[in-house]
Amino acid sequence: MSNQHNDPTGQVAELDGPDRFENPGIEPHRHRLGDHDEAAAKRSESIVVLLLTISILASIAGVVLYVIIPVGTNLADIRLSTLSLGLGLGIGFLGIGLAAIHWAKSLMNDEEQVEMRHPQASNEVERAEAVEIIEQGVKDANIARRPLLKGALVGAIALAPLPFVVPLIGNLGRDWDIDKFRHTVWGDTPEDADPEYFGETSDGRVGRRLALDPTGTPVRAADVTRNSVFHIIPQGIEEEENWHSEKAKAVVILVRLDQDLLTEAPDRRDWSYDGIVAYSKICTHVGCPVALYEQTTHELLCPCHQSTFDMTDGAKVVFGPAKRPLPQLPIAVDTDGYLIATADFDEPIGPSYWERLK
Q1: Paired sense of beta strands 299-301 and 308-310, if any
Q2: Strand spans (E) along the chain
Q3: Are 291 and 213 in contact (CB under 8 A)?
Q4: pLDDT-derived band of residue 97, with 50, 70 and 90 as boundaries?
């Protein structure tokens, strides 16, 4: 085979060998309607401006709705606020992207360009040519001749990040008191404990009842069969102030194991009941929900980064990036047979942070 040199002129190019062929060159350039019809070019410009305007309006609407919609304990408001930010951000950047594509296809120079192969190193002349090409590209974009297009582009690019930036700025004034992570509603024992949500053991300990998530039905110890898994919340949690946040901290996973499989520290032997153990559902790595239980190995798996915890041995880490066991919830049975929490978690739930005492 001979090595042929690409020559856009269509001349025969031969470097070695007997084989010859004519370079077909570049196909004849097909001009667009806007290349010779200013009215068509104006229509293309109007389409680009329309797309950029949609981007601007979407970005502004996302920020305005975020400010207007109150974000409290109402789940519908939280979802609507999040949706408005997402749509504002998505439509804002989508408008810029579509405008850029239409601009390039209909307004920018689309003449075919040929760059011949040459050595990697470039000399001063070639560098000057490169600068000239860049300048020519800026000129071909027609940005100087179309101030309306330039203004729309600058406005869209400037406003598109707002749905992302404004919530970050707004959160600077939020409550950042991390001490609230040291305690959950499991540790609340009001003097006038409502018997509907609290129970008392035969030895006088009072605690909030464990309930199924999401129904809120209290759980009897007799209903927890061996190797069964229950997702637990404090009964009556929906009546707490800021109950969404409180529920997020207090979620528990409950499992019943054979009593002889449990390895319990001497000071924790009364934290379980007849093989039933309860641990925080929040992974100690980055806070994902630990919700996958393997009956054969009696291990809990975090689906995010595969941290694995041994339920038979204090939920200690046996695999993965987590460094601490899941906090345990001390439980007992009240006089009516319902499971209750006799105290709060033994340590703060969730990932580590530097203010932790342990």
Answers
A1: antiparallel
A2: 198-200, 206-208, 210-212, 229-234, 252-256, 276-280, 292-294, 299-301, 308-310, 316-319, 331-333, 339-341
A3: no
A4: very high
The DSSP 8-state label assigned to residue 341 in this structure reads E
Could you tell me the residue ranges of all domains in the chain? 33-173, 180-341
Q: Are residues 59 and 163 in contact, defined by beta-carbon separation less than 8 angstroms?
A: yes
Strand partners, 309: 300, 317
Q: How far apart are CA 186 and CA 7, in angstroms?
A: 80
Amino acid at 300: L
pTM exceeding 0.70: no
Instruction: Tell me the per-residue pLDDT of 229-264, one tens digit each, with 9 for 90 and over.
Output: 899 999 988 877 778 888 888 999 999 998 888 888
d(CA 250, CA 15): 77
Comparing CA positions, the residue from 333, 281, 276 lying closest to residue 304 is 281
Report yes or no: 253 and 230 within 8 Å, Cβ to Cβ. yes
Note the Cα 37 to chain centre separation in Å: 48
Which residue is it, tokens 């033994």? 346
> Domain 180-341 adopts which CATH fold?
Rieske Iron-sulfur Protein (2.102.10)
Coil/strand/helix, residue 291: coil
End-to-end CA distance of the chain: 74
Contact 67, 118 (CB under 8 A): no
